[in-house]
Design goal:
By secondary structure, this protein is α/β, with parallel strands linked by helices. It folds into two domains: 188 residues, FAD/NAD(P)-binding domain; 150 residues, D-Amino Acid Oxidase, subunit A, domain 2 (D-Amino Acid Oxidase, Chain A, domain 2, 2-Layer Sandwich). It contains nine helices and 21 strands. The strands form four sheets. Strands 7-8-6-16-17-18-15-19 form an eight-stranded mixed beta sheet, with helices on both faces. Strands 10-3-2-14-21-20 form a six-stranded mixed beta sheet, sandwiched between helices. It has a four-stranded mixed beta sheet with strand order 1-13-12-11, with no helix packed on it. Helix 1 links the parallel strand 2 and strand 3. The longest helix is centred in the first third of the chain and has 21 residues. The radius of gyration is 21 Å and the shape is globular. It starts with a strand and ends in a 27-residue tail after the last helix. 47% of the residues are buried.
Length: 391
């Protein structure tokens, strides 16, 4: 089979891999090749709902999310492509007094950092969100008027177009079989389309990242976790704001520009493992919870459903940077549900790190070696809030 030489090989052609390819080629980092085992965006990047939200549960993540949103504000112009980014707002629906107390502190933190969240009482929440009228009684809502949603396919295709325009080579249907390491250094990768000799590989394979890392003899503490989505037939505009709730369990819904209601409700005991099938149990769970929260949606017909994968790490933060075990092997994964939000800005920072061989202060927070020597058991947290602790 053919043998090619490249300065940088990126494994994974989703939003992270294509964003990094575009960033690297824009700063003339040398010959860049992207290997995608399916087609561009065929993995998790087209199996999400594109939320780009600033409100986060910790100060560190909120600061980062603000920078990521700022990147999106200029991204369409930067890429020369309409990525369909719109700011319609975000509401965190609160259904018990403990949630309200917890969110009061979060709201104060948000405003200190410039996010401008509001803690609404039940009456204000219903005035802002009439779709919830006659639903389960609210205790309040954390509301941010300026949050955004982007069209995932548009972002991936925009980066794909820009990367190729700048000279990146993209191989679709290209499955990695072996990563070649010699004396602790990357020397190449074998695929079903030939061998690519390189001294630098970036693992941007999303929920398959742990499998890719194992091909290089590296263990990374991440695991795939299924998240299912359903979509209704389109209806007249009912809501601008995206809504999320965590009682009695995690769920969310919003309306697309085409009028569809997109929704999901999580099984708190969903097991780790790669599973992209969807189920009637999910549809039943989500429908019943949605009707409890917003009865007006009860007459809508479900049009389709699908499942994507979160790539979960023990602290629910990504793994970004070079691994100590093998020189030239970089991680860009572990998004834990924030891939569409984080990937564009994080890819920009990682490209700078690769070229300058210096790590920004922000990326140090996501150092892929931070779990070294520490036993980390992957846990499924039934309580969403317990996942996040300020570092």
């Amino acid at each position: 089979m053919a043998v090619q030489t490249s300065d940088i090989v990126i494994i994974g052609g989703g939003v992270a891999g294509m964003a990094l390819a575009a960033e690297l080629t824009a700063i003339k980092a040398g010959k860049v090749i992207v290997l995608e085992k399916g087609y561009i965006g065929s993995g998790n990047s087209t199996r999400n709902v594109g939320r780009v939200r600033a409100p986060q549960l910790t100060e560190k993540l909120t600061k980062i999310a603000l920078k990521c949103q700022k990147k999106y504000d200029a991204l369409g112009e930067e890429l020369g492509f309409n990525i369909l980014f719109r700011r319609g707002g975000y509401a965190w629906l609160l259904y018990d007094s403990d949630e309200v107390s917890h969110m009061r502190k979060i709201c104060e933190m948000h405003n200190r950092l410039g996010v401008k969240s509001e803690l609404l009482d039940p009456d204000d929440a219903l005035r802002r969100l009439p779709v919830l009228n006659s639903g389960e009684p609210l205790k309040g809502a954390l509301f941010h008027a300026n949050d955004g949603i982007v069209h995932h396919d548009a972002v991936v295709m925009a980066y794909h177009q820009k990367a190729r325009l700048h000279g990146a080579s993209v191989y679709q249907g290209c499955e990695v079989k072996k990563i070649n390491v010699k004396e602790g250094r990357i020397i190449g990768v074998d695929t079903n389309q030939g061998t690519f000799c390189t001294s630098l590989i970036v693992n941007a394979a999303g929920p398959s990242s742990s499998e890719v890392a194992r091909l290089a003899g590296i263990h990374i503490p991440s695991a795939p976790l299924r998240r299912e989505v359903m979509v209704t037939m389109p209806v007249k505009p009912l809501m601008d704001c995206a809504c999320t709730f965590y009682r009695p369990n995690e769920g969310w819904f919003n309306q697309t520009m085409r009028g569809e209601i997109v929704a999901g409700a999580v099984d708190a005991k969903e097991p780790f493992g790669y599973n992209r099938s969807t189920s009637f149990i999910f549809l039943s769970r989500t429908s019943s919870l949605l009707i409890r929260k917003a009865p007006i949606l009860g007459s809508l017909k479900i049009q389709r459903s699908w499942a994507g994968m979160y790539d979960i790490t023990p602290d629910h933060n990504p793994l970004i940077g070079q691994c100590k075990e093998v020189k030239g092997f970089y991680q860009l994964n572990g998004w834990s549900g924030r891939g569409m939000l984080f990937a564009p800005y994080m890819s920009e920072l990682l490209a700078e790190q690769i070229i300058n061989e210096a790590t920004s202060e922000l990326l140090k927070f996501f150092d892929p070696n931070r779990f070294e020597g520490i036993k980390q058991d992957m846990e499924i947290h039934e309580d969403y809030y317990s996942r996040y602790k300020e570092a």
